[in-house]
Amino acid sequence: MNATLTTRLSALRARMAATNTDLLVIGPSSHMRYLADLSPHGDERPVLLMVSPTFAGFLMPSLNVDSSRQHTDLPFFPWTDADGPAAALVNLLAATGVPAAPSIVLDETMRTDFALLVLDALPGATRRFTNDTVGYLRSHKDDTEYSLLKAAHLLNDRAVTAAFAALKPGMTELDVAAFIGEFYKANGATTEFCSVCFGPNGAFPHHHTGTTQLKSGDAVLIDTGCRLDGYPSDMTRMGYLGSAPEGYGQIHSIVDRAVEAAIAAARPGAKASDVDKAARDIITAAGYGPNFLHRTGHGLGIDVHETPYITATSDTVLEEGMVFSIEPGIYLQGQFGLRLEEIVIIRNGEAEVFSEMPRTAVSGGQ
């Protein structure tokens, strides 16, 4: 096991001790990639990583063992299709040294049948999800993760800049998304997601990129992210083709001020709800509170959406190393939607923005 994974496993056990956790049970997921650099094929065959204070090992279908062995030196408890997983699971649980009525943490993302397999084997267990163990650790990025996230965002800057420059009348939203995807591919990355919205489509926060054609006077919203060396980027920028639609400049200014207020509020010791309030207060004071339709942000790391979540009700206290989006928006049905998004990291006592692309409105094709 490499030094990073050894450090993470040690940190996990410290969190388990602090939270009185006897056993952590993880399925094929981002949690497993974080702890073991392993993401085996996920199908109906149970795959589980179990970590106790004294032991860590895998329940693994025999079909996957040889391939998985290349990525980890943790022990495997293999099982075949002919025999089923029951005996291997009993042996793995015995190896963990789990007590008769353990406090266990279950991966909230794994299949229900995997979770029930464990719960049936431990009828006296109390259980919860990963928020205060591996989830807590993942919300605090180390220097290596910082560098990977920074590189992904700088590539995203270049892709989005190029996409706005390439805008022409008659292009479809899908054309722009394809352009961005090819830019990512040419630079060693893959598309994580890409939402392109022309004109009134921008007023739908989760618009599905489609065949709408671009025309002069349309606002253009591009919300996109690549995955580079295992870590994603995420950013939203606004522009228009030719001349901006009526009222665009005023709305852009309001949303940009909301972003700045939220960045200023994002400090160690602040609550996530403080950051949401800072953005929301600017938009509400300008008279557009009902047009801000969603939370201010979400965490980002191995997954594009992970803890912490920047909502009006979140009591999560921000700490050094936390990474999350700040993305207020104003959505005017039948006209346009305007959202500006930055990904920030709490670093050296303040919120540092990963992107280096200005948030100023871009006139497409210029």
Please write out the topology.
Elements (H helix, E strand, L loop, with lengths): L2 H16 L4 E4 L3 H7 L11 E4 L4 E6 H7 L7 E4 L6 H11 L6 E4 L5 H10 L4 E3 L5 H5 L4 H24 L6 H14 L3 E9 L20 E10 L2 E2 L2 E7 L6 H18 L6 H14 L11 E3 L6 E5 L12 E4 L2 E4 L3 E4 L2 E6 L2 E4 L8 E3 L2
Helix pairs in contact: 7-8, 9-10
Give a verbal description of the structure:
The protein is an alpha+beta fold and 366 residues long. It folds into two domains: 3-138, 3-Layer(aba) Sandwich (Creatine Amidinohydrolase, Chain A, domain 1); 143-364, Creatinase/methionine aminopeptidase superfamily (Creatine Amidinohydrolase, Alpha-Beta Complex). Helices cover 34% and strands 23% of the residues. It has helices at residues 3-18, 30-36, 62-68, 86-96, 112-121, 134-138, 143-166, 173-186, 248-265, 272-285, and strands spanning 23-26, 48-51, 56-61, 76-79, 103-106, 126-128, 190-198, 219-228, 231-232, 235-241, 297-299, 306-310, 323-326, 329-332, 336-339, 342-347, 350-353, 362-364. The strands form five sheets. Strands 4-3-2-1-5-6 form a six-stranded mixed beta sheet. Strands 7, 8, 9, 10 and 18 form a five-stranded mixed beta sheet that branches. Strand 5 (103-106), helix 5 (112-121) and strand 6 form a beta-alpha-beta unit. The chain is elongated and about 70 Å long.
